[in-house]
Amino acid sequence: MSKQVGKAIKGWASADGEFRRQVSSFRDWISSDPSSKFQPEKGRYHLYVSLACPWAHRTLIARSIKGLKDVIGISVVDQFLGEGGWKFSDPKDCPGAIPDTVNDSKFLSELYFKAEPNYNARFTVPVLWDKKNKTIVNNESSEILRILNEGFNDIIEPEYQKIDLYPKNLRKEIDDINEWIYNDINNGVYKSGFATDQKVYENHVTKLFESLDRVEKILSDKQFLVGNVLTEADIRLWTTIVRFDPVYHGHFKCNLKLIAHDYPSILRWARLVYQLPGVKETVDMDHIKYHYYTSHTNINPTQIVPVSNGPDLENPVVKPEGDYLTRS
């Protein structure tokens, strides 16, 4: 793990102490429909991610599960987020980083300005880039997740075409569970951790653990959140849970309970997902811990990175019951 740190971003909360997530700006879709500007093609698209970011992590898991690693290239930003935003580093300086081989950018911001010269919002990951039109297709993680699930089915191997992380018969239930998990857990850890008002913090951290309790109950007699199969709902929650004990519990003051000690059903499920083919390889705990503890100096001014990686997700071995994927 690199020990070089720079000037970090100060804070994210508004004047009232609330953290409000930015709405994504690029919302196009990849589709084989003749009217689509963005047609599925091997090698045409590039995914820019951070290994630390839970939102970007979703897209890496989908890319792996859907057999898209040879179809869509990736670049990985440095684990440290400074005042200049996400940057691209040599892997010698930041193990795990992958430079921008498409646009030769030094900072992620350069991509945004290539796509929109007058862009004036935050420069976030993930970014799905179109090499042909030299622009950003989409920078909303939940939509990129669905693009990867269905947008390339016409050009990938049949075994991957059949995999469906958002099956039609489960969509209503998936959408419903996604909504409160996003508000109270995915974004709830940030609303708790970035709060600068005591009442605001207590309000969000209470909702967070009420919803974790709700998830624990759901998983007490099910192996996955919806139906008996892995869906995007599991992926969206899992990238938060894998960061919970090593980061959010201490760094974001989400410390009423621990996944390892207080949520046995969530822990079993977290191990199950981690051990599924293609998931483990997307996890880089050095990037995750280093990013949070060194980039948020308003929360952790010493930039000391804790030793623990959270619960052991490799042991014991947890195997899914039956075929865990929906195959259309």
List the defining traits of the structure above:
single chain; alpha+beta; Glutaredoxin; 2 domains; four-stranded mixed β-sheet; two-stranded antiparallel ribbon; 6% strand
Helix content: 25-40%
Question: In the CATH scheme, what's the topology name of the largest domain?
Answer: Glutathione S-transferase Yfyf (Class Pi), Chain A, domain 2
String of helices and strands? EHEHEEHHEHHHHHHHE
pLDDT averaged over residues = 94
Evaluate the radius of gyration. 19 Å
Strand-pairing-aware structural class:
alpha+beta
Distance, first to last CA: 42 Å
Extract low-pLDDT stretches: 1-5
Any idea what the shape is? globular
Largest sheet: 4 strands, mixed
**CATH top level assignment of the largest domain:** Mainly Alpha
